Task: structure prediction
Amino acid sequence: MTEVTTLMPATKKAETQANSAARLGLWLTLPAQLLVLFIALFPILMQVYISLTDWSPLDGIPWWRAYELWIGLLNYTDLMADSRFWGALWRTLFVMLVCVPVQFLLGLGLAVLFVDDFRGKRVLYSTLLVPMMVVPAVAGYMFFMLFQSGGPVNDLLSFFTSEPVRIAWLSDPDLALIAVMVADIWQWTPLMFLILLAGMISVPQDQQMAAILLGASWWRRFFTIVLPRMKSIIIIALAIRVIEIFKIFDTLFIMTGGGPGVATETISVYIYKVTQQELIWSYVAAIALAILIVLSVVSVFAIKRMQRGQDG
Amino acid sequence: MSEIALENLGKSFGDFTALADMNLTIANGEFMALLGPSGCGKSTTMNMIAGMLRPSSGTIKFNGLDVVDVPMAKRGVGFVFQNYAIFTHMSVRENLAYGLRAQGVRAGEMTKRVQAFAELLQLEPMLDRPAAGLSVNILQRLAIGRSAILEPAIFLLDEPLSNVDAAFRAVMRSELKSLQGQFGQTMVYVTHDQLEAMTMADRIAVMDHGKLLQVGTPLEIYNNPADTFVARFIGAPGMNILNGRLTQQADTVAVDLPGLGSVALPPALQAAAARLTTPDVLVGFRPEQINAAKAGLTMHVGFVERIGARTIVHMEQGAASAKAVLLSEVETPKARKDWTFAVPDDAIRLLDPVTGQALVGRPN
Result:
């Protein structure tokens, strides 16, 4: 007991010292912190502000005077009832739910093939990464040409079915979305492959050897050693693709422009149209804010999972 | 239970010969240490026994059966990796059960055996703890248990103590030795640490540059090294080896060590010395067997290292250097002074200066 009491002042002193050091650190980093806060916080606050008004740049008043057009939560209640918004949101989710698993499985399969050495591996490896390096706009034009009714895709189908195929891929409301998803899978499977291969290579060899010596089959090793050890990298790869697909725009816009009708209109395309064609900026602010909230929730969830994966 | 026979075993990687013409029979239940510096071929040998590498030449037989074409999963070999290769994303229980589950053992039987092994290895209190973050001696026990639970006839251990700090190594050594006693399997233990080999092994196979140099019990190898490499490699510090010349003195042969003095050869070595065609010879003696004396050999003391119970004396004379290990209670020679010592008759070994081979006393 006496020991504790004699120790008390010393600890207090140390605490004050640590506090003053922390305060000095705060002062020294304050300019940078303010800058970061400004960059991150200011646009969001501005967005919240504008989303509560009916402001548009054509109204002839600067944005900070948008309160003159105050409409409260009207934009948000409109959004709730906006079937085009909900359609775009569900379409984006649908593209995500198809493309991310397909890209993941293809990437994982390729990673399994490439984790061992074989002849010509390096050439094939570089070739596989090419789609990722193609500018998305160029990829969009490539697939636009490929899916023309007189284009190579139909020629190929004609060759296999030995009768002339003339499918109007990009102007059929059901098929256009498929064409768009094919393009996304072509372009972004390589990224998934690259990340998953890196993860697979980092699985310790001796653990796999140990599993073989204990009599484990290839499948058992894959599911009990390789995949569990890749857990955090898999979560990272999936998170990257989920967030990216949520923002899918350039390839898709060049291929279909969101059409026919609204058949391929995703969230980004919808926002673009409302901003550029209908010029309802305050409404766009409300949409963007809603999506930011959704994405943040998803990201927080993913990061939490990731951390749990690293603990386990 | 298995006997391992390596017959003319060889392995080359391209132009590099990792192992040449190795012949070694490891008896059933024996603890055999493969000892040598890195690059001597010991790990290559073990990886071939395990089936991770395919021999370039020769055969490996378990109980007389050629196993070269048997895949590693089917050889019935337990392997303990240098870093134990514990599945750290699983619990201790899952690690122990991994092999049983892979081989389709029924759930009830599995639970029973895991429980029995956990009791044997004193892993019971931590069965459901994650394997990550356990201390090294528990990891070692777990690594051994994970293999032993499949009852392999042969156990291979690849330098399991090399990542452990020196103080803990003694604990691990005795634990490992007692585990081997419990399981009674044939154990092959690869190490570069002569102390580990000396303290644990029934027999030691000393290797260097892809060749097997000597096989014998620790004391055989310590007392009668087959050549200069083994003589210097075994013991800490290793054997002193000095250049000498045979001289005829009256009716006996002695060895003149230039600058140091001369030693009379014991009768047992007289005949061996007579077989040499040139008068040049290497004289070997253990640092521990030197005693201070009034007359004998004289060398200049460079420095004196005190390491507790013992004292190491570093000596030089011309091009020759030698060490002496004395008990701390004995009066130690002064640094930078000459010191005279005697080598007992039975401590003297003669080696051929050309081939490096010992002249007598090689075990058959």
Notes: Chain B has a mean pLDDT of 87. Residues 4-86+134-223 of chain B form a domain with the Rossmann fold fold (CATH 3.40.50.300). Residues 166-183 of chain B form the longest helix (18 residues). Chain B has two domains: 4-86+134-223, 240-351.
